[in-house]
Amino acid sequence: MRISTIITILLSIALLPSCSFRKQEGISSDPIDAKVSKLISSMTLEEKIGQMTQITITALEKEGEPGILDKNKLREAIHKYKIGSILNTPNPGAPKPKRWNAILNEILAETNQTDKKIPIIYGIDAIHGASYTDGAVLFPQQIGMAATWDAELVEKCTAIAAYETRASSIPWVFSPDLDLPRHPAWSRLWESFGEDTYLSSQMAAAMVKGFQGDDVGASDKVATCLKHYIGYGSTTTGKDRTPSIIPERVLRQHDLPIYEKSINAGAKSIMISSGEINGIPVHASKKMITEILKDELDFKGFVVTDWQDIIYLHTRHKVASTMREAVKKSVMAGVDMSMVPDNYSFFEELFSLVSDGEVPMSRIDDAVSRILRVKFELDLFRTPVTDPKDYPDFGSPSSVAMSYIAASQSITLLKNTDKILPISKESKVLITGPTANSMKYLNGGWSYTWQGEKSDEYANDKLTILEAFKNKIGEQNVTYTPGVSIFEEIDIAKSVSLTNNADYIILCLGEHNYTETPGDINDLMITEPQIKLAQALAKLNKPIILILNEGRPRIISQFENDMNAVLQCYLPGNEGARALIDIVYGDINPSGKLPYNYPRYANSLQKYNRKYTESLGDTEQNDDADYQKSYNPQYEFGYGLSYTTFSYKNLNIDKIFMSKEDSIQITIDVQNSGIRTGKEVVQLYLKDMFASITPEVKTLKRFRKIELQPGEIKTVSFMIGIDDLKFVNENNEWVAESGEFEVMIGPLSKKIVLEKELKEP
Ligand code: BGC
C-alpha cells in the first residue's frame, strides 16, 4: 500500500466520529436547512398538511361581496386547516397595490395569531408583468418576448415584473411558461416561447433570472414557478388539457432540456401539467415527478399541482376511483402542494391517509421541507408582506418605456411588397377590422382578469391601434369603421365605401382575448367574417397593410396574396399600439422574428425542425405550385423582415474535425447592406447529415441579436461543443454519433466532422 493511501485512510478514520456527529445533529452547511428541520420537528401533522394546501382567495370572499374577505372563512382556512398558500386575484379583477397590501395584511394578521406564525406564500399569474395589479406595466405576452430573440431584454423586462409584483405585496409568480406547443391551434401557444427547444430554454432561463436575481429574498425579487411540467402544450388535438402522446425519447430531447436549463438557473417551484401523457395524467406520474424531475434533474424546490388537478384524477381522468385514492396517487407521485382550490377534501383525505399509514411521514416531511425552504429563501418569516410605499417606481415611465421597447422589438414584419412600409405621415388611412379599437386584443388573456375581458376598463389610459394612429397623424387623416367583429359581420359595405378617401387600408385582424379551454377552436383558419372583409377589400386595388393581433397563427392564406404588407404583433401588451405605429411610419425599424412556423394550410402543420419524410412530396414531385408542396409554411420560424437588408459573408470554422474534448469556434461577418440602421438576429442551425434516429432537417443551436449602422460589418462569433451535436437515441441516451454535420448561418454553410461517437446515459 502506498504511504499516501495509508495517510488518507488514517485521516478519514480520524475524521469519522465528527462527520457522523455532524450528521446525527442534523447540522448542515446551509443555515436554511437547519431552520427548516427545526421548524418541521415541532410541527403537528395538521400543520404540515396545511402547508401543502393552497386555496383560491375567491373561496374566502363574502357571499355577494366580491373582493371582501369573509372573516370566518379566513379563520377557518388559517386556524382550522392551517393552509400554507393562497392564490389568484380577488373578484371582480385586479386590485391596486394598496388594496393588495391590505388583503395580504389581513391574512397576515390571522397567521400571526397561530402558534408557529408560518407565513402564507401568496402566488399569482403575473405572466406578462404584474398582470393582476391595476396600474402595473403590462409587457408583450411570452410569445412576443420570444419574437424579440433578445434574452437580455427579456431578463430586464422580467425584473420590472418582479418589482411590481412585490410592490403588490406578492412574492411568488406562476411564470415562466415552458410549454412546447406541438399544435398551433393550442389555446395557450401565446403563453409559451414558441416551437423551439433552444429558443425557449434561453428565454425561460432569462425570465427566471429576471424574476429571482441572485437572491430571491431581495425585496424586489419573486420566486418563479415553471409550468406546466410536462408535455402540456403537446396535445394531439390542439385543444387544452386533452391527451398528449410523447415518446420518452422525444420528451427527453425536446421538452426536458427547457426545464433543466431553468432548474439550473435556480427556479424555486414547478407546476404540474393538467394533461396526460401516453395515458398517464402527469399528476399521477411518479416517474415524471419523482424519478425524472426530483431525482434525475435534482430539482430541490417544491411541486404544486395545477387548478383542482388532484380532484380531476378522480372526476376527469378516472385513474382514481375515489378522492382518497387520487390524493394518495398524486402525493406519492411527488406532488408537494395541492392547488385545491376551494374545499378541504385534500387536507382531510391526506390527514387520514397519513394517520392510517398509507402515506409515510417521510413523504410529508419532504414536501413540507421543500415548501418551507422557499418561504425562508424568500425571507417571508422576517418580511411576510412588502409595502407598496417602498416601491416608488411602480408603473414608472422608465418601466413603461421598457414595455414599449419589448413590443417594438417583437413585432414582426412578415411581408413588405415593393417596400410599401414605412408609409408617409401625410397620407390618409382607413382603419378597419375587429381588433383596431380595443386593448383586449393587444393584451389577451391573463390581463387584469383570467380571460382578459376587462382590459379596456383597466387600461383606458393606454392607446388602442386606432387611437395610436390618430395620435400620430391627426384625426383628419384617419377614417375608421370595424366592418366586422371577430365572430360576426357588421357592415363590410361601409368599410369598402370608406376606402374612397384613403391612400392605405390598415386592416386589423386577429383573435379575441382568451386562455385555456375557453380559447379552444375547431378551425385554425381566421374567422369567416374576417376572411370576407379581407376579400372584399382586396378587390379594390388599394394597398392593404394587414396588422395581426393574435395569440396563435390563424391561417390567412385565403387572402394573404392580396395583402401588400403584413405585420404580426402577437399580443404586444399595453404599449403595443404605440410600438406598432412607430413601425408603420418608420420611426422604428422592425426586428422581430417568428418563434414558430406560420402555417399556410390546416393539414400542413410541420415545425421548422421537421424530419425529411414530413415533406416527401417536395422532393419527389418537383412541382412548384404552392398547394403541391408538403412543407410550405406561410412564413418560416426565424423569419422576419427589416427596413434595411443584411448580407452574410466569410463563414469560418476554426476546425473541421472534432473530437470529444473539442469545441468549435464559428465566425461570420454580417453587414448592413441597406441605408437604415437595423437589428438582425444571426441564427446558427446544425444539420446532422446521417444518424441512427432520423435527423431533423435543421436545428437551432445559437442566436444573437445585433445592431448595425448602414454599411457596418460585425463579426459574430459562436462556440459550439460536443453537446450541440447530441440527440437522444432509441435507448434514451444522449449521444453524438460520428459523421458529418452542416453548420448553417443565413445563406452560408460549412461541414464539420465528428470523429468518434460519444454516449452519455
Ligand atoms: C392554469 C395555470 C395557472 C393556474 C392558477 C390554471 O388553470 O392552467 O396556468 O397558473 O390556473 O391560476
Describe this structure in words.
This protein is α/β, with parallel strands linked by helices. It folds into four domains: 1-39, no CATH class; 43-387, TIM Barrel (Alpha-Beta Barrel); 399-584, Rossmann fold (3-Layer(aba) Sandwich); 644-754, Immunoglobulins (Immunoglobulin-like). It is 32% helix and 18% strand. The protein has 22 helices and 29 strands. The strands form eight sheets. A six-stranded mixed sheet has the order 13-18-17-16-14-15, with helices on both faces. Strands 6-5-4-1-12 form a five-stranded parallel sheet. Strand 9 (276-277) and strand 10 form a beta hairpin. Helix 10 (286-296) runs parallel beside helix 12 (323-333). The two termini are 34 Å apart. Beta-D-glucopyranose is lined by residues 87-88, 125, 174, 227, 274, 306-307, 516.
Count of beta strands? 29
Question: At CATH's second level, what is the architecture of the largest domain?
Answer: Alpha-Beta Barrel
Ranges where pLDDT stays below 50 over 5 or more residues in a row are 1-26
What's the overall average pLDDT, rounded?
Answer: 94
Q: Count of helices?
A: 22
CATH superfamily of the largest domain: Glycoside hydrolase, family 3, N-terminal domain
CATH topology of the largest domain: TIM Barrel
Strand arrangement within the widest β-sheet reads 13-18-17-16-14-15
Give the terminus-to-terminus CA distance: 34 Å
Q: Percentage of helical residues?
A: 25-40%
Morphology: globular
Kindly provide the radius of gyration, computed on alpha-carbon positions and rounded to a whole number of angstroms. Answer: 27 Å
CATH hierarchy class name of the largest domain: Alpha Beta
Strand content is 15-25%
